[in-house]
Specification:
This protein is α/β, with parallel strands linked by helices. The chain has one domain: Rossmann fold. The protein is built from 7 helices and 10 strands. Strands 1-10-9-6-2-3-5 form a 7-stranded parallel sheet. A 3-stranded antiparallel sheet has the order 4-8-7. Strand 2, helix 2 and strand 3 form a beta-alpha-beta unit. Helix 1 crosses helix 2. The longest helix is centred in the N-terminal third of the chain and has 21 residues. The radius of gyration is 17 Å and the shape is globular. The chain starts with a strand and ends in an 11-residue tail after the last helix. The structure holds 6-phosphogluconic acid. The site of 6-phosphogluconic acid has 15 residues, from loops.
């Protein structure tokens, strides 16, 4: 069974602070090397508090935002001010603080009609910004992912076409179960990342986490996040981790 790096926290707040510290620590390693720190942010509800902490007073001045480039992991095909928009959540929680130079956040324009073109343009922007890593292919430094009760991550839902994309970095994805289309980063890009951190909270994720972290290798999208030359960490709150064995949670 694949060994997972799992950290269980009492609350979503503790989980979010730990994720913010991981972001700060990894970013500093790039800053001291005189390099840009490239991060990809998921939507949904779980990461909102993390983004508020990153923009908040406690970290003021500790992150050189001029040397940070922020991307979206995925986006719903709705206008950017729609209540379901991941961009709207990230804008309200992080960007409205004014800490991040506007040009350093790269919005997925998933409201456009030609999603194939939006996907191509977004992948081109990623390629332009991501620096080749010392002979390695260009890669994201950190990716925050969530997980749904069905094991989806990003907008890679079970049984959907984007999950099988083998070369494009970004592509549209029709999610019939939701009756909607999405734009999403794909496994080739996500599995080229240096550090992937799953943020998973809530009792409704507990059963799926047992399958993903303790079950046989399977086809759930979250199980297919396996960075070729990078790490995967799972930051869980108590409710989400409650059905995991002590061994999985790193408890003696
Ligand atoms: C999205 C997200 C998605 C999310 C999971 C978990 O666009 O919805 O990218 O992958 O991370 O659905 O969502 P919650 O954090 O709201 O549980």
């Amino acid at each position: 069974m694949l060994k997972h790096n799992v950290r269980a926290f009492s609350t979503l707040e503790d989980l979010s602070w730990a994720a913010a510290c991981a972001f700060e620590d990894l970013a500093r390693l790039k800053f001291v090397a005189g390099k840009t720190f490239c991060a990809a942010l998921s939507g949904g509800l779980t990461p909102r508090l993390l983004y508020q902490i990153l923009a908040g007073r406690a970290l003021l001045g500790r992150i050189e935002w001029k040397n940070v480039q922020l991307f979206q992991v995925d986006e719903r095909c709705v206008p950017p001010d729609h209540p379901d928009s991941n961009y709207r959540m990230i804008r309200e929680a992080l960007l409205d603080s004014g800490e991040i130079p506007p040009g350093n956040f790269h919005r997925m324009q998933a409201e456009e009609a030609d999603l194939e073109k939006v996907a191509r343009d977004y992948a081109a922007e990623l390629a332009r910004v991501l620096e080749p890593q010392d002979g390695l292919r260009p890669r994201l430094d950190i990716v925050f992912l969530g997980m749904g009760p069905d094991g989806h991550t990003a907008s890679l839902f079970p049984g959907t076409a984007a999950l099988e994309e083998q070369s494009l970095w970004v592509c549209p994805n029709r999610v019939e179960r939701l009756g909607m289309s999405r734009l999403t980063m794909t496994l080739p890009l996500l599995n080229a990342s240096a550090h992937v951190i799953f943020l998973v909270a809530g009792a409704d994720k507990a059963e799926t986490l047992v399958k993903v972290l303790e079950g046989p290798p399977g086809e759930l999208p979250a199980q297919r996040i396996q960075p070729v030359d990078g790490s995967v960490s799972w930051f869980l709150d108590e409710a989400a981790a409650r059905k995991l064995s002590p061994a999985t949670k790193g408890e003696s």
